[in-house]
């Protein structure tokens, strides 16, 4: 009789996207995030899982949620962290990304979290340096930890992802969140749709396994949950929509539209929100919204990803373990 072989690692050396992660791999990350989640409710929010590890957060684009939640996740796991932005690094003097990474490598860092405007940056870095690389958003390609935290938030609310109907509404063309959501949801057995102006829905997106709705009314009638995306005006050179007011009139997620749904819809938004454009305030702050729950889950998911890449999965609190003193 042979001993049972250990399970395959949930993640490899890096996390650059969700496209190639199986449903089982994704579920393992989400299960581990649930175990780490209770750390953030403790009076002392610390575990030594990453003690002795050094992590660089390399953000070439602005970020509130992703950068801060990575930093919290790293600190709650005991890592030593350094934050670098493009304007305060030597990239602003013309240094290439690879030279920046090589210099970081020479300082013997263990992990790099990178956000960059160019698709493929994380994978490129991952192929050049031995440190673990985590993609915190690369151009319009992927934002895998956002996808994972969206999946966890949906699973919390519905108890499962299989068979769930999720429609992503808004600027699909420029959105890395849309792609990571589509891959993650399809790979875990959910049904996915996208809805937006024809100019902002990439041709052939159905090949990723999703359907396309031209009108929000159709999306609202079909879906269990809407993931609402902002117009990424900073990535638009041409006139993709006639005006923001017109966009809100045709594609905005409003209380009046939600009232037409045949079931209670759950509303997600990755942030930052443009209230009154893609989503109205009474929806964003209303009973359908899980938007701040997404933010809470972001820290837990990032703790799980960091621990898995560092091979410290076993340092997480046991599932369902009651909190000391609770
Ligand atoms: N969701 C998200 O990526 O937000 P930030 O740009 O604030 O990190």
Secondary-structure blueprint:
Layout: H1 23-37, E1 54-59, H2 65-76, E2 80-85, H3 97-106, E3 111-116, H4 121-128, E4 132-138, H5 144-158, E5 165-169, H6 176-187, E6 191-195, E7 210-213, H7 216-222, E8 225-228, H8 244-251, H9 255-258, E9 266-268, H10 281-284, H11 291-309
Parallel strand pairs: 1-2, 1-3, 3-4, 5-6, 5-8, 6-7, 8-9
Helix pairs in contact: 1-5, 1-11, 2-11, 5-6, 5-11
Bound molecules: phosphoric acid mono(formamide)ester.
The site of phosphoric acid mono(formamide)ester has 10 residues, from helix 2.
Mean pLDDT across residues: 93
Record field, number of beta strands: 9
In whole angstroms, the N-to-C terminal distance is 44 Å
Share in β-strands:
5-15%
Q: Percent range for helical residues?
A: 25-40%
What is the CATH class of the largest domain?
Alpha Beta
CATH superfamily of the largest domain: Aspartate/ornithine carbamoyltransferase
Write out the strand line-up for the largest beta sheet, numbering strands in chain order.
7-6-5-8-9
Overall structural domain count: 2
How does the overall form come out from the CA principal axes?
A: globular
Order of helices and strands: HEHEHEHEHEHEEHEHHEHH
For the record, the CATH architecture of the largest domain stands as 3-Layer(aba) Sandwich
Question: What does the radius of gyration come to?
Answer: 20 Å
CATH topology of the largest domain: Rossmann fold
Ranges where pLDDT stays below 50 over 5 or more residues in a row are: 322-326
The assigned structural class equals: alpha/beta
Enumerate how many helices there are, as a single number: 11
Main beta-sheet strand count, sense and barrel state? 5 strands, parallel
Distinct small molecules = phosphoric acid mono(formamide)ester
């Amino acid at each position: 009789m042979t001993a049972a072989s250990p399970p395959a690692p949930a993640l490899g050396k890096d996390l650059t996207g969700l496209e190639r992660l199986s449903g089982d791999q994704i579920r393992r990350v989400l299960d581990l995030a649930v175990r780490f989640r209770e750390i953030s409710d403790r009076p002392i929010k610390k575990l030594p899982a990453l003690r002795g590890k050094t992590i660089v957060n390399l953000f070439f684009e602005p970020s509130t949620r992703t950068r801060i939640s990575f930093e919290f996740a790293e600190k709650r796991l005991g890592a030593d962290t350094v934050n670098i932005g493009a304007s305060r690094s030597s990239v602003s003097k013309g240094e290439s990304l690879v030279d920046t990474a090589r210099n970081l490598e020479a300082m013997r860092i263990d992990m790099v979290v990178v956000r960059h405007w160019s698709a493929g940056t994380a994978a490129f870095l991952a192929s050049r340096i031995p440190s673990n690389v985590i993609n915190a958003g690369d151009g319009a390609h992927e934002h895998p930890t956002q996808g994972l935290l969206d999946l966890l938030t949906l699973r919390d609310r519905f108890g499962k992802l299989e068979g769930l109907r999720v429609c992503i509404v808004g600027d699909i063309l420029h959105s890395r969140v849309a792609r990571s959501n589509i891959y993650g949801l399809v790979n875990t057995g959910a049904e996915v749709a996208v809805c937006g102006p024809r100019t902002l829905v990439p041709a052939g997106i159905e090949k990723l396994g999703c359907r396309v709705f031209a009108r929000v009314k159709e999306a609202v009638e079909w879906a269990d949950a809407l993931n609402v995306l902002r117009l990424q005006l900073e990535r638009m050179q041409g006139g993709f929509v006639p005006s923001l007011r017109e966009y809100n009139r045709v594609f905005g997620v409003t209380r009046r539209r939600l009232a037409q749904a045949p079931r209670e819809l759950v509303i997600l938004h990755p942030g930052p929100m443009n209230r009154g454009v893609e989503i109205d305030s009474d929806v964003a702050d209303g009973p359908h919204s899980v938007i701040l729950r997404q933010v809470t889950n972001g820290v837990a998911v990032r703790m799980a990803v960091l621990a898995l890449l560092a091979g410290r999965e076993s340092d997480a609190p046991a599932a369902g373990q009651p909190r000391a003193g609770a």
